[in-house]
Amino acid sequence: MSRLLTVDVGNTTTRFGLFSWTDDAPELLGTCELTTPARITSDEARIQAGQALAAMGAEPTQNAILSCVVPTLTDAWRRALADLCGVRALVVGPGLKSGVRMRYDDPAEVGPDRIADVVAARAAYGAPVIAIDLGTTTNFEVIDAEGTFAGGIIAPGVALGARSLAQAAARLPMIELRAPENVIGRSTQAAMQSGVVLGEAARIDGLIDSIADELGDGAPVVLTGDGAQAIAALLRHETVVDETLTLRGLALIWQINRKKR
Fold first, then answer.
1. Residues that are catalytic
2. Residues 144 and 51 in one domain
3. Residue 69 structural domain
4. What order of strands is seen across the sheet that includes strand 13-21?
5. Do the beta carbons of residue 252 and residue 119 sit within 8 Å?
6. Each residue's pLDDT tens digit, 196-239
């Protein structure tokens, strides 16, 4: 049985997934998360990947696929995975098949994590479907009834919003990212939590409504990423929380492209 290492390098967090491989579908064996540094060498990336594999109770694999939204880190991770696995890792981007038709002006602009979310959401939940990924940015990915990637929405994430407030306004502090007891805050911290956390939930609800109006179809909503469970509890819309959506999407993209190797 072969194994596959999926690596999703985000602006804030780097997520690893270990999959076993059969002829039918990948099976997720374990996950690990590490903080994404501002800079990394290929040796440091190789050590991080080795630590992640050890945390998941696995030896280095012979297959790997990389999604990296930080261009300055991509080459180091590409070389690190080649050294660790002994073969060239697939890197999600132009030239790699996704199996999904894209109605986007320039498909090369679509981030690799977004592509992975689209592939996994369509495979797991059918079409149409809306996938929302919470991270440094809040990304909406919309798949229409024909299974085509219709486009999406990119907005500042919860943590980025809170950090921007604290940095731009001298009298505003950094806050804990949790929902306050009341919408009307009776302290600066509670008022900021209402604006940032409850405001994010209200924005997501409103955008889901707007997408439904434009799409013309009722679509299930899948939530993934940082704090997805907590945000889902605040939404008016019914959602499915899928914490491993992106990693599974990477595994499916590897499956589509493995015959080319």
1. 113
2. no
3. 2-91
4. 26-35, 13-21, 2-9, 64-68, 90-91
5. yes
6. 999 999 999 999 999 999 988 789 999 999 999 999 999 999 99
